UniProtKB/TrEMBL annotation:
It catalyses: lipid IVA (E. coli) + CMP-3-deoxy-beta-D-manno-octulosonate = alpha-Kdo-(2->6)-lipid IVA (E. coli) + CMP + H(+). Gene3D superfamilies: 3-Deoxy-D-manno-octulosonic-acid transferase, N-terminal domain, Glycogen Phosphorylase B. Its main location: membrane. This is 3-deoxy-D-manno-octulosonic acid transferase. Residues 33-212 form the 3-deoxy-D-manno-octulosonic-acid transferase N-terminal domain. Keywords: Cell membrane, Lipopolysaccharide biosynthesis, Membrane, Transferase. It is found in: Cell membrane. The keyword Zinc-finger does not apply. Its EC number is 2.4.99.12. It comes from Marinobacterium zhoushanense. Belongs to the glycosyltransferase group 1 family. One of its GO terms (molecular function) is transferase activity. It comes from the Bacteria. Involved in lipopolysaccharide (LPS) biosynthesis. Catalyzes the transfer of 3-deoxy-D-manno-octulosonate (Kdo) residue(s) from CMP-Kdo to lipid IV(A), the tetraacyldisaccharide-1,4'-bisphosphate precursor of lipid A.
Length: 430
């Protein structure tokens, strides 16, 4: 009954959902494309074998699961891979990473008739959901059609758990319909269990984000960009910034330039629809602004470099000496600190890191990350690092070792998926 009530409310809210999608399309026109797929009208995929369906909500989840997708493509060359995302940026990443080797579709909104259409057209053998993108009707329809669902790289922060617990009558049945969960940590597993996930379906595999392997091409491109900016000057990157953080970092950078006039700032906004406004904001702080998307080449005179492209964050990280990871001053829970850590960069973050709470704390304990409480704290921490080669080197080494010491989750997750595929294939033959 609770799920039926949820369905009724979602149905009544659908015009608002469509209006919001259209509104977002003002700045990001891709939101207005392929809308029928969000209603379950998925184009026929064009394959006969039942696919492995992987759902990754946006860019972060797509990048996290990409190494697993690559392994599945190599291990099961005859088994189609279907990837769904919710955002156009996620769709763009799927296309850039895999091209025609996988099928991409937008994920339907969570109404049962949308899901019935989607599953009838795609007929997946197995569903793999990345992290915590759980929807009641999605899981209900999968269970009704006997499609096993594995929650991969699952995380459940204390904050999220409190939110789910307020809707226990909806959450518990939803979790009980999961076939298997690969949790990032004991704490994530315990919270999921307390919310209603049966303990015999829990596996603790660690975070697959530790299995990141920096692409040599990104490192090479970062080195080339560093030559253009100037190899002897200090370079700070502010990555995946949200609204409000850009100006905070620009204020800090401007103040630090009083002591380090050659300090360069690489500013990489999180969302493409903000690229133009962030570039305009940067020009209020400096006349020497260069945008990645423009034809102009950066030089040693460039003071602020705007990373206004998609899929190039790792090369921007590779260019810098020190990395600030955004989303941590915006109340959105922070973004992945393991990306700069894997490249051996000292990492700084603000107070809001609930998306990566355990990783942030562990990286801080290992000596590879400094977490600050406010703008003044960020400025102090940067003053301690800029020009201090010994301190930066120690943090860089600690960060790199921390990532290396925690690898292995991808192997464990792959084994779980292969086991589930074997069971599903056997059941299909019966």
């Amino acid at each position: 009954m609770v799920r039926l009530l949820y369905t009724l409310v979602f149905t009544l809210a659908l015009p608002l959902v469509l209006a919001r999608l259209w509104w977002r399309g003002r700045k990001a026109p891709a939101y207005r494309q392929r809308v029928a797929e969000r209603l379950g009208f998925t184009p026929a995929p064009g394959f006969s074998a039942r696919p492995v369906w992987i759902h990754a909500v946006s860019v972060g989840e797509t990048l996290a699961i990409a190494p697993l997708v690559q392994r599945l493509l190599e291990t099961y060359p005859q088994r189609p891979i279907l990837i769904t995302t919710m955002t156009p940026t996620g769709a763009e990443r799927v296309e850039a990473l895999f091209g025609e080797r996988v099928i991409h579709r937008y994920c339907p909104w969570d109404l049962p008739w949308f899901w019935s259409r989607f599953l009838q057209r795609t007929n997946p053998l197995l569903c793999v959901i990345v992290e915590t993108e759980l929807w009641p009707n999605m899981l209900h329809v999968c269970a009704r059609r006997h499609i096993p669902v594995l929650l991969a790289n699952a995380r459940m922060s204390a904050r999220s758990a409190r939110g789910y617990s307020r809707f226990a009558a909806l959450t518990r049945p939803m979790l009980e319909q999961l076939t298997l969960v690969a949790a990032q940590s004991h704490a994530d597993a315990e919270r999921l269990h307390q919310l209603g996930l049966p303990s015999d379906r829990l596996n603790i595999t660690g975070s697959i984000k530790f299995d990141i392997e920096p692409d040599p091409a990104d490192i090479s491109a970062g080195a080339a960009l560093r030559v253009q900016l100037g190899q002897t000057r200090p370079v700070l990157i502010a990555a995946s910034t949200h609204e409000g953080e850009d100006e905070l970092l620009l204020r800090v950078w401007k103040t630090l330039c009083l002591d380090w006039p050659s300090l360069a700032l690489i500013l990489v906004p999180r969302h493409p629809e903000r690229f133009a406004s962030v570039a305009a904001l940067a020009r209020r702080y400096s006349k020497a602004v260069c945008c990645r998307s423009a034809a102009d080449m950066p030089s040693s005179d460039t003071e602020i470099y705007i990373g206004d492209t998609l899929g190039e964050l790792m090369q921007f990280y590779a260019t810098a000496d020190i990395a600030f990871v955004g989303g941590s001053f915006s109340g959105t829970g922070g973004h992945n600190p393991l990306e700069p850590a894997a490249l051996g960069k000292p990492v700084l973050m603000g107070p809001d890191t609930f998306n990566f709470a355990q990783i942030t704390q562990a990286l801080s304990d290992a000596g590879g990350l400094i977490q600050v409480a406010d703008e003044a704290g960020l400025q102090r921490a940067l003053r301690e690092l800029i020009g201090n080669a010994e301190r930066c080197g120690a943090m860089a080494q600690a960060a790199r070792h921390f990532v290396a010491d925690n690898r292995g989750a991808l192997d464990r997750l792959q084994q779980l998926i292969e086991d589930q595929l074997s069971v599903a294939e056997r059941n299909q033959r019966l």
